[in-house]
Amino acid sequence: MVYGIIIHSSESEQLYFSTYYNLVNNDINQNSRQQIIIKKVIEEINYYKEDKENNENINKKNKDKYLDIFGVFIPRTSNDEFKIDNEGFFKIENISLFKNKINIMWKVLNKVCYTLMFFPHENIHMADNFLNTLIYVLMDNYEHFGKSNKNNMNKFNPDTVLAILYFFLPKGQFMILTPDYVQILSNKVKEFLGEKSNPKQE
């Protein structure tokens, strides 16, 4: 199960969107946990930036080796419209922050970081595929419904993000997202958002 999702700047602690599915750790310390995670992710991003050439190949080899441990390969969504600028993965095992161990996967595109928090028993292939799909669908919906406002906050309108998560991550559970199924769900999201923005008149 997914613990939560944070969308934030890759250069600062500016928050665009966050939501949580797990109630075990959802208490008065949730905001401080969120800030700690964002800071840690930004540290990771800066680390890779500073020593990109040396660490890029090592990170890719380690990640591929780690991915091979888990289950059947889940095909990633094929999409040539965007290329992730940076990505990484780490674990949090500090019981003072979380009662359970948490995996953190993050991806950066256009100075926006998409951070996914999920439990260690989850399939990392499905987590990786979901995060790529989420980014793609967010961009696709932003293109589809217009760019009246260039501000990132408008791009990550909570209603839009929550609608996408409702279809692509029901109750915080990963699904097998094949390209065909992604297209079906994307159409459902657009239909839902279209009806919401243009309610039927009786």
TrEMBL record:
The record's GO CC annotations read: AP-type membrane coat adaptor complex; cytosol; late endosome; lysosome
The biological process GO terms on file are: double-strand break repair via homologous recombination; endosomal transport
Pfam families membership: AP-5_subunit_s1
InterPro entries the record matches? AP-5_subunit_s1
Listed name of the protein: AP-5 complex subunit sigma-1
- Name its species: Plasmodium yoelii 17X
Q: Top-down, what is the taxonomic lineage of the species of origin? A: Eukaryota, Sar, Alveolata, Apicomplexa, Aconoidasida
